[in-house]
Amino acid sequence: MSADGAGPSSPVWPTRRRYLAPTMCVRKRTFEWGSRTYLMGIINVTPDSFSGDGVSASVEAAVKQAVAFEAAGADILDVGGESSRPGAEPLQGGEELARVLPALEAIREATVLPISIDTYHAGVAERALWVGADMVNDISGLRADPEMAAVVAELRVPIVAVHNQRDRPFEDVAGDIVRGFEATLCAADAAHIQRSNIILDPGFGFGWAAHHNFEIIRRLPELFRFEMPLLLGTSRKSSIGFLLDEPAEGRMLGTASSVALSIAAGADIIRVHDVEEMRQVALVADAVTRDNWRHDG
Question: Would 14 be classed as within a structural domain?
């Protein structure tokens, strides 16, 4: 029995593994993988975000959102200037830079949080890193722009490497993700990117059918083999909308469910639009899966 008579305590959820990944330091903030779930807040500097929360070209709105996310408990801010929704028109680098650089510079002055630049263009990433971003979120997993790996390696910054299934043959959800990660890590090794600077994202919503996306969550423990931190971004995605028959703004509860289950399955970072609400979900999920809760005396 435990001291309070509640029965034996089990500090580790059945699907959770003991982390071998080293801690990661980003802008003086230390990420101790396995200790708790971290929150990445999404700031879309776009006019056509699928989620309806894009701030377009408004620097003031981007800063306001960043400050609100910091106050709500975000650990990282993810700033992007190109919509990654299916069917979105690709941007030229100059247009993407015109969207993100003013917002990045202003956000950098307004917050001490680490900032991620959400781009798969090496030129955009490099400029963004010089004006205030601290890390890269590449939805191609280093497989779109051959120069991206060199930029990340040279500037010695962390990278979120996403497996993107779009336009790739399907065999098996977990198997396809594993092969994608292996290709990404091969490119990273060739560029001499330190593996301790890599976060893996299996790509929920990137080229999968709705039921495949939910299978990603269910089979997330199969990705523990890489012994790297895992990020999952389910927030307001169309698979949730398909299941609930709800538009983006009506997917809060569905997102909350997917976030809790992602944490139970082993996610270390959740990428979300609704930081305050999903922080509450993460606190409860961590209390259950990590026995990580606060005693009030």
Answer: no
DSSP symbols for 95-111: HHHHHHHHHHHHHHHH-
Q: 184 with 163: CB under 8 angstroms?
A: yes
Write the pLDDT tens digit of every residue in 152-192: 999 999 999 999 999 999 999 999 999 999 999 999 999 99
pTM: 0.90
Angle among Cα 42, 45, 49 to the nearest 5 degrees reads 75
Instruction: Kindly compute the dihedral angle of the four CA atoms of residues 278, 281, 287, 293, in this order, to the nearest 10 degrees.
Output: 60
Structurally, the chain folds into a number of domains equal to 1
CATH code for the domain in which residue 168 is found: 3.20.20.20
Token pair of 36, please?
């708790």
Q: Which residue is catalytic, options 127, 237, 251, 279?
A: 237
pLDDT tens digits along 31-87: 999 999 999 999 999 875 544 455 566 899 999 999 999 999 999 999 998 876 565
For β-strands 29-31 and 38-44, DSSP reports them as: unpaired
Is 77 inside a domain boundary? yes
Candidates 211, 214, 210; CA nearest to 258 is 214
* Tally of CB atoms within 10 A around 94: 10
Tokens 């580790």 map to which residue? 12
Known catalytic membership, residue 64: no
Q: What is the DSSP letter of 36?
A: B
Residue 290 annotated in active site: no
Residue-wise pLDDT for 254-297, tens only, equals 999 999 999 999 999 999 999 999 999 999 999 999 887 764 43
Full residue range of the structural domain in which residue 257 is found? 37-289
Q: Which of 108, 127, 236, 271 is catalytic?
A: 271
Largest CA distance in the chain: 63
Is 20 domain-assigned? no
Residue 28 lies in a domain: no
